[in-house]
Write a structure and sequence with these properties.
Length: 269
């Protein structure tokens, strides 16, 4: 999807927040904001928001010298989610419709998005879970997922954020994890999950992990690695988590199942 003008204030806010996470120096914050302002002014709005997100966070990393400003936050949310994991697994196991409950749990984890939800706190995860268990869900979409999952031999599951990866574990087991390859970002960007973050969530014990070779907070096929693109093309089922993946993959030619929480009015529309 193309970038809305409504996204521009969010770009600036995200840049300043990331700069403050990476450095305590106000002069560095100013340098980041000025550099991002110049790039935003020239940004092609026909491109997707995650493409601008990559530019923003590249500026933050180069200006501050911090290659992963969100590293500590990612560890904290992964740990908080792991503490909830026994409860998540129990909910799924006790459900009359284990797939639907696992899908709802996976969607609940998508609240851990510090690009669009900066005020989130680890103790908010339980509230997100409770609301996701009762929220309206696309019934036709769920049945299509059930149909595809029933016959799929190769499943590509494109992850989103660190910590959210733990919530995904419940759905991965329900899908039969041995059929699943779990994709992460190639390098750190915002709090999106990398291979290290997925391993910290215990996913390496369940599924094969692959990275897309890039640091966009979404999935841009033209910039992804060859192994990822090959798997995307040949998988029987592709599941993509989160707004960033929706923003970058919603126009692709193949069928994709999107699991996300809507966290901004642009996506809501």
């Amino acid at each position: 999807m193309r970038t809305s003008v409504d996204c521009v204030p969010c770009f600036m806010d995200q840049a300043l927040r990331a700069a403050r996470m990476a450095s305590d120096d106000p002069s560095v914050h100013e340098e980041v904001v000025r550099a991002v302002s110049a790039r935003v002014a020239d940004f092609d709005l026909s491109k997707s928001p995650p493409e601008m997100g990559r530019v923003i966070h590249d500026i933050v990393r180069r200006t501050t010298g911090d290659t992963d400003p969100y590293a500590g936050v990612k560890r904290a949310y992964t740990q908080a989610a792991l503490e909830l994991l026994p409860e998540l697994e129990q909910l799924s196991e006790a459900s009359d419709d284990r797939l639907e409950t696992a899908v709802r749990i996976a969607i609940a984890g998508n609240i851990i998005d510090l690009g669009s939800n900066p005020d989130l706190r680890p103790d908010s995860l339980r509230r997100s879970l409770e609301s996701a268990l009762d929220a309206p869900l696309d019934a036709a979409g769920l049945e299509r997922l059930r149909e595809l999952a029933g016959s799929a031999e190769d499943i590509l599951y494109i992850g989103d954020n660190a910590g959210e990866t733990v919530f995904d574990r419940v759905l991965l087991r329900e899908l039969a994890a041995e059929r699943v390859t779990y994709a992460v970002r190639g390098r750190p960007v915002i709090n999106d999950a990398t291979r290290d973050d997925a391993e910290a969530a215990g996913l390496g014990e369940l599924v094969r992990i692959i990275d897309n070779g890039w640091d966009v907070p979404g999935t841009i096929l033209s910039q992804a690695g060859d192994a990822f693109r090959d798997l995307f093309d040949r998988a029987d089922l592709v599941i993509a988590k989160g707004q960033g993946n929706y923003e970058t993959l919603s126009g692709v030619s193949r069928e994709v199942v999107f699991l996300l929480r809507v966290k901004c009015p642009v996506i809501a529309r």
